[in-house]
Amino acid sequence: MTETTNPQVLLARRPAGEPVPEDFRLAEAPVPVPGPGEVLVRNRFLSLDPYMRGRMNEAKSYAPPVAIGAVMGGRCVGQVVSSAVEGFAPGQWVAGGEGWQHFSAVPAAALRLLDPDAAPPSAFLGVLGMPGTTAWVGTTEIAPVKPGETFVVSAASGAVGSVAGQIAREMGARVVGIAGGAAKCAFVTAELGFDACLDHRAPGFPEALAAACPDGVDVYFENVGGAVQRAVWPLLNPFARVAVCGLVSEYSAEPPPPGPNLREMMGKRLTLRGFIVGDHPRAAAEWRDTGARWLRDGRLKYREDVVHGLSRAPEAFLGLLAGRNFGKLVVALD
Amino acid sequence: MTETTNPQVLLARRPAGEPVPEDFRLAEAPVPVPGPGEVLVRNRFLSLDPYMRGRMNEAKSYAPPVAIGAVMGGRCVGQVVSSAVEGFAPGQWVAGGEGWQHFSAVPAAALRLLDPDAAPPSAFLGVLGMPGTTAWVGTTEIAPVKPGETFVVSAASGAVGSVAGQIAREMGARVVGIAGGAAKCAFVTAELGFDACLDHRAPGFPEALAAACPDGVDVYFENVGGAVQRAVWPLLNPFARVAVCGLVSEYSAEPPPPGPNLREMMGKRLTLRGFIVGDHPRAAAEWRDTGARWLRDGRLKYREDVVHGLSRAPEAFLGLLAGRNFGKLVVALD
Q1: Do A141 and A102 fall within a single domain?
Q2: CB contact under 8 A, B273 and A276
Q3: Distance of CA A115 to the CA centre of its chain
Q4: Cα separations (Å) of B291 from A325, B36, B73?
Q5: Which of A177, A290, B104, B187 has its CA 20 to 30 A from that of A254?
Q6: Same domain, B169 and B270
Q7: Binary contact (A269, B272; C-beta < 8 A)
Q8: Which residues of A54-79 are buried (b: 16+ CB within 10 A; e: fewer)?
Q9: What is the DSSP letter of B214?
Q10: Whether A261 and B261 lie within 8 Å, measured CB to CB
Q11: Among all residues of chain B, which has the CA nearest to that of A222?
């Protein structure tokens, strides 16, 4: 059956604090007509990621905000519907679809054919995609960890954290995760093979974290901020490195909550670095090769949280900000 | 006239918040008798530096605290009184004297003969000593600045800041200082040759700083923290680097005041690094050579604030914490 319209999710208005469902609007547009050099793609999986919260704001950031009434931005994998461009044939799986919508007309140069032998297509949105590459950049370039050091990562069962911890383990570190709830923590230790995982919602979390890091913390891969950050901070060792990758617990707080006092930065000679994966263009291919190999070898595990149907994307995204997803959140665009 | 006692300043008690004169105590000890391999030094100049505030606390730091009743620690330059060690003769000027006191018995290995042609002896406590080396490490290793970038330094007329700004200028940066009061600012621009200097005590300081940095801030050399830090933060450019060298306005605050929110660290990909000059052992000689050459060439200027008499050291140190000194603070041990 030929699909005759392009369902979309638009940004209806800018959120005031925590986003709510009314900030989004479902719409239908005509299926786009590809221009010269473009390929029509039927998106099959849409990636939902915390960075999208920032794009909903007016404030200038490293990327322009989504305009009111525009399609929410996001990475998709999908299949070629029609193509006048050599090298792309109907049915092929590609990365490079864009937006919370079923169809994208994409310049061929922005598309990449997926390797069906490496992993299922949706994995290129998570473990082998932008989140996995983010973990790779953070652990190898931004805050490198040495064998025997203690590596702590928050949102440890999430798309980035789960990969970051496994890379650190492969680099010889002792790896301690922080996640929300007993089920996630059990997954992180039993399935991902972290040395320990602490539930930040459990009473006595700061003490439990300290007990799990008897030699202190050498690298902290920061995904959440807030109370979790405050628990990690006193445990940082001299010369510790902090990769500031995300602060998902703080994105909707206005004014921004205070950060850590910098006094300890001197005594402990800390290095804090914020980073964005897009600044490291060679890392994506590098990680795809490495990650695909580790997947084949069984050294790298991942878990997806798949929501079915574009109309459920807003609700799923709100759940992501609240930590209700369990694994890499993707929307199957059935 | 032979001096028969060793005047000293002891730590009388640990400060509660801001130190007060009663936290110190004047005392007299016998002139120390040098042991085997030691040299007796009559200290002539004592360096007073903000890091000493940290040593007055109980809290563990990178260096052990001064014990109650012990001599306050500090670097001195002075003259050899007596020596059984080859290479040291009475009257020679040396660096390596230790403590708020007139006499030190120092292992010869910890002494360094001063080059009387390079600069006056007291300069080896400031522009060519630990503060100058700190500026060198901060600007060349911790937060390197590139030609054409904007470099901002707080406490710009002080021992470290004045050198940091001049090094940055030599590296081709546009240099903006921040200092307390019009006289210091005038010195910083007219004598040190900074492009601009802002008085953080003047009304409208944040706006004036922004106006003085029309292209934003690429490197911030942080010496003070607090309100000055809050004014600089919004001006930081993407990929800006912050060398956290000192936070003199915050040392006595308990609990430590909040630091900057880390949200901007990601969008702006900031790098913050705390550092301690002692971790860079080769930098001291490197900077002594470079700094001495620049002094001879007239490219490097410095100013000393000399207080006469050991008994005035506590009062002078309290003034340093409050920004009442003007230039590198040294005590002439007359």
Answers
A1: no
A2: no
A3: 21
A4: 58, 35, 26
A5: A177
A6: yes
A7: no
A8: bebeeeebeeebbeeeebbbbbbbbb
A9: T
A10: no
A11: B262
